[in-house]
Structures are given as C-alpha cells and as structure tokens.
Amino acid sequence: MARVTIREIARRSGVSKGAVSYALNGQPGVSESTRARVLKVAAELNWAPNSAARMLSGARTDTFGLVLARHPATLSYEPFYMEFIGGVESVLTTKSYGLLLQVVPDIAAEIATYRKWSSERRVDAVIVVDVRVDDPRIPLLEELELPAVVVADPSLAGGLAGVGTDDASAAEQAVRHLAGLGHRTLGRVAGLRELGHIRIRDEAFAAAAQRSGLRMHTVHTDFSGDGGAEATRTLLAEQERPTAIVYDNDLMAVAGLSAISELGMSVPGDVSLVAWDDSTLCRITHPSLTAMGHDVVAYGAAVAERLFGLLAGAGATADLVGAPALRVRGSSAPPRG
Fold this sequence. Notes:
Layout: H1 6-13, H2 17-24, H3 32-44, H4 51-57, E1 63-69, H5 79-92, E2 98-104, H6 107-120, E3 125-128, H7 137-144, E4 148-151, E5 161-164, H8 167-181, E6 185-190, H9 196-212, E7 215-220, H10 225-236, E8 244-247, H11 250-262, E9 272-276, H12 280-284, E10 290-293, H13 296-311, E11 318-320, E12 325-327
Parallel strand pairs: 1-2, 1-3, 3-4, 4-5, 5-11, 6-7, 6-8, 8-9, 9-10
Antiparallel strand pairs: 10-12
Helix pairs in contact: 1-2, 1-3, 2-3, 5-13, 6-7, 8-9, 10-11
C-alpha cells in the first residue's frame, strides 16, 4: 500500500500543504474548522507521520530515552531496574509515549548516544541513572539542551530536573535499628565508590554510626553476587568481626547469606543482615531478609510524570520523593551474649 502523503491530505481537504502541516503538528496558523477537517481526512486515510520529517519540523517524537551503561547480563538479576522501568511504562502507556532503552558498555558510549539522539531528535527527553560524583553527563545534557530527569539526590542533579530518595535518612534507620538490638560493631558491603548515591550513603552511615557510638567497617564492591560474597568473607575474617552487616543491594545480601552459611555460621545467630532495595529475593530466603525498601514502581512513575512536566514547561526542579523504610524480618536480631 502506498504511503499517504501530506500532499494527498491537502488535496482531499481542499487546503494547502502548509495548512495541513500546521494542523497535524498542533501549531497555530489555521482555523479550528480547518484543523478539524484535516484531522478527519488524515484519520480516514490512516495517515501516520514520517519520523524523519517530524524530527526536521521540530515536532515531538512521543519517545523518552533511557541509557544503561552496564553489561546486558546484569539486567537479568537486578530487580530494581525491571520494577523501575515498569513504573515508567505505567505512565507512558497512558499518554501513548514509548521508551527507547539502550544498553551500552560504559559512560563514554552513553555520552555518544546522547549526542546522537540530540542531533537526530530521536527522543523528547531522557532519564539519567547511576549518577557519578562530578558526572560528565550532567554538563553535556545542559550543553545539548536535551531535557532530562536525573534519578538521584538533588545535590547530584546540577541544573537538571531530579527525582531522588532520601538515602541519608534510610541509613540512619538501619543503624538505629541495629544499635537498638545491641550491636556495637557493624559491617557494610557497599557499592561502587564513584556513584553519587553510594558517596551519600558512605557519609550517612559513618555519621549515624558515630552518633550511636558504633564501630563500622566498610568494604566497597561492584553490586554483584560474587562481589557481595567475597566482601562478606573479608568482613568476617577481621579480628574484630561485625555482628551485623548492611548491604547496598538485595543481590549482595542474598550472596552474603550463602557465604555465611558456607563459613559454618548462622543468621541471625552469629551475624544479623540488612539489605537495601527490598525485593522478592529478600522475602524468599531463609531467614527472610530485613531490608530497606520503597515502592520502586511508584518511583519510576514519579520520574515519568516529571518528564511530562518538563515538556509542559515546568521548571527543572530537583527534590526527594520519600525515604526507603525499614522492613524488619528474620535476619536481624540481638547479638549473642
């Protein structure tokens, strides 16, 4: 079937091609009666816009972009991103928008993707995740004038819009819970140092431990199961081993639980565990894991709503949408003795 053109719509509507373009793109310059007639003819002909022409005209693409700089295999065992994307999609589908997801190996490739999307007008706005300390993507997006929502603490968003959760408050909750149980020496299996939210957690955990008079040993790793297990062994081999360990994600916590069992120790008898990013993984272990959790689907939806707000002319504000809450389960208890 031949593609329906603007020329054909103009002929059937009895108006110029320019008037058709104004009407189809929702721009001023035609009367409402003319716009209605053009739209009626376009619908009768099952007309769909040519994406290249739409990009050249400056019209919206009805698409948002998300680039994940990581190995594709990691997506299969990271529940957070699947729930987050589900939340984004729950809003996009109601507005007939799509999400362009691209997985790239590193930040350099992510930056190249933004430059390409901007030059080709592939997306209306982007979602930025895994924000680094002094992240080079922030000034780049400002330079490109590509609308963006940064999924991070407001202190990391630069001049861009941002939606974050209060990780500092959550860290305080975790330390207060363990201190209340009687633990005096804590371990922490933390994520990558260069990530902004990990730096915020590092500072918050250190401050909370000091306020509670606790000792805290931190080992940074890569969020993987193998990394979490190895970090757990490192902490439990210390002369002054911790009686409780906090993990920066659910996967590392589950791996740590297995490593503790392999060492002939028990949870929570010998060591209590607290995970971040509560998920199904935390609920199906034995014992089930005490975890810091929040509604990740709602978080993704809030980010999507902020994207539409940018398109509607809202300012690039950055704020927090709540703090993860402690969900106490069987993996945390008072220390022996």
